[in-house]
Design brief:
Elements: H1 3-29, E1 35-42, H2 65-70, E2 80-89, H3 96-110, E3 117-121, H4 127-137, E4 144-147, H5 160-171, E5 182-185, E6 188-191, E7 196-197, E8 206-207, E9 215-218, E10 221-224, E11 249-253, H6 261-268, E12 273-278, H7 289-297, E13 301-306, H8 321-324, E14 327-328, H9 334-345, H10 351-360
Parallel strand pairs: 1-2, 1-3, 3-4, 4-5, 11-12, 12-13, 13-14
Antiparallel strand pairs: 5-6, 6-9, 7-8, 9-10
Length: 361
C-alpha cells in the first residue's frame, strides 16, 4: 500500500470511529426517562358526554387507558409510559374488593426494577379514599400518584389531559420519592391523608383546606413546599398481601333529632366498627349514646369523628372516651377514619392500640 493510500485509509477509519463515538455519546447524553405505569380505573377522566358543553350528566368510565394515553402525546417527553386497565367503573361504585385488587397490583408493579412510579386514573367521588387506603398499604417509597378530572374527556377545556400530564410528570420525578401517595389535580400536589373533594363540579374541587397542599406543578416541574409528618407507605404497619376481605366498618352521621336506628341496623348487619361522624367536636346525642355503648359491649369498636371537616376531635372532649373505651379520629374525616379503622381491625381490636394508630397515621 502506498503512503498516500495508507493515509486515505487511516483518515476514513478515523472518520468512521468518530461518527460511531459521536453517535454513542449522543445516545448516552439523552436524558433518562423514568418508567411510569398508568393504571386506569375509570371515572370522569375516562368519561364522555353528549356534546362538548356537557359537563354534568355525562357517562363516566367509557374511555380505555390506551385512548387516555394517546390523547396526551406530550407524556412521551417526560416518561416512558405504559398503561393497564385494572377496572372500568364510576368511582361511586368503588368498594373494598376493588381496593384490594388495586393495592396488590400496585405492590407487585412497584417491586419491579423497571417500574419507577405509578399513576392511577380514578373518579373524583371516592378518589381521596382510594388514595388514603393506598397510602397505608403500599410497600414502596416509589411515587404513586392519583389523578382524576372534574370534566369528561369530551368537554370544552377538559381538565383530564393536563391533570394526567402533571401526574405522570410527578410520578417520574425523584422529588416525589418517599412523599407517600399523592394526588395531582388542578396543578396542585396534595397528600392522600389530608386532601378532600370540596365542590360538586368546579375544577378546584380538591383542597387540603387547613393543613395545606404539598406543592405545585408549574413549567413541567413539581415544586414541594412541605411534606406530611404522618407515617405512610413503606413505614406503615399494615399488610394486605394475604387479605381476601376487609372488616365491615360503617359510618353513622350526626344531625339534629338523630336516633339510633341506623346505628342499630349496621350493628345487626355485622359491623365490626362504627365511625360516628358527630356534630361539632364529635358530640354524641343523648338518644344515640346508649346504642353506642351497647354496640361496644358487643365487640364493635367505636370511633368518634366529626362531620365538620376540619380540626382535631379532642379525646375526652365531648365524651369521656377513656371511660367509654372509644377512639377519636384526630383530624381524619369520617370516610378516611373508616379506612384506617378497617385496616386497624385486621391487626387488633384493642382500642388503645387503635388510638395509637389514629395518632400515628
Amino acid at each position: 500500500m502506498t503512503t498516500q493510500l495508507f493515509q486515505r485509509f487511516t483518515l476514513a477509519l478515523c472518520a468512521v470511529l468518530l461518527v460511531g463515538t459521536s453517535a454513542a455519546y449522543a445516545e448516552d447524553s439523552k436524558p433518562h426517562l423514568a418508567n411510569v405505569m398508568i393504571l386506569a380505573t375509570g371515572g370522569t377522566i375516562a368519561g364522555t358526554g353528549a356534546s362538548s358543553t356537557t359537563t354534568v350528566g355525562y357517562t363516566a368510565a367509557t374511555v380505555g387507558v390506551e385512548r387516555l394515553i394517546a390523547a396526551v402525546p406530550e407524556l412521551a417527553k417526560v416518561a416512558s409510559v405504559k398503561g393497564e386497565q385494572v377496572f372500568q367503573i364510576a368511582s361511586e361504585n368503588m368498594n373494598n374488593d376493588y381496593w384490594l385488587v388495586l393495592a396488590k397490583r400496585v405492590n407487585v408493579l412497584l417491586a419491579r426494577a423497571d417500574v419507577d412510579g405509578i399513576v392511577i386514573t380514578h373518579g373524583t367521588d371516592t378518589l381521596e379514599e382510594t388514595a388514603y387506603f393506598l397510602d397505608l398499604v403500599v410497600k414502596s417509597r416509589k411515587p404513586v400518584v392519583l389523578v382524576g378530572a372534574m370534566r369528561p374527556s369530551t368537554a370544552l377545556s377538559a381538565d383530564g389531559p393536563i391533570n394526567l400530564y402533571n401526574a405522570v410528570l410527578l410520578a417520574a420525578s425523584a422529588d416525589a420519592v418517599g412523599k407517600g401517595v399523592l394526588v395531582a389535580m388542578n396543578d396542585q400536589i396534595h397528600a392522600a391523608r389530608d386532601v378532600t373533594k370540596t365542590n360538586t363540579s368546579t375544577l378546584d374541587s380538591f383542597k387540603t383546606t387547613e393543613l395545606g397542599l404539598l406543592g405545585y406543578i408549574q413549567g413541567s416541574k413539581p415544586f414541594f413546599y412541605r411534606t406530611s409528618s404522618r407515617k405512610h407507605t413503606a413505614e406503615a404497619e399494615f399488610d394486605i398481601s394475604n387479605l381476601a376481605t376487609l372488616p365491615q366498618v360503617d359510618i353513622v352521621y350526626g344531625y339534629a333529632n338523630m336516633g339510633p336506628v341506623a346505628l342499630d341496623a349496621f350493628v345487626a348487619a355485622g359491623a365490626k366498627g362504627i365511625i360516628h361522624a358527630g356534630v361539632g367536636d364529635g358530640s354524641l346525642a343523648s338518644r344515640v349514646t346508649p346504642a353506642l355503648i351497647s354496640a361496644h359491649k358487643k365487640g364493635v369498636v367505636i370511633v368518634r369523628a366529626s362531620r365538620v371537616g376540619q380540626g382535631i376531635v379532642a379525646r375526652n372532649g365531648e365524651a369521656n372516651d377513656d371511660e367509654l373505651d372509644f377512639v377519636v379520629s384526630d383530624t381524619l374525616n369520617a370516610q378516611k377514619a373508616r379506612i384506617l379503622l378497617m385496616l386497624a381491625l385486621t391487626k387488633t381490636s384493642n382500642t388503645k392500640d387503635i388510638q395509637r394508630m389514629f395518632y400515628l397515621y
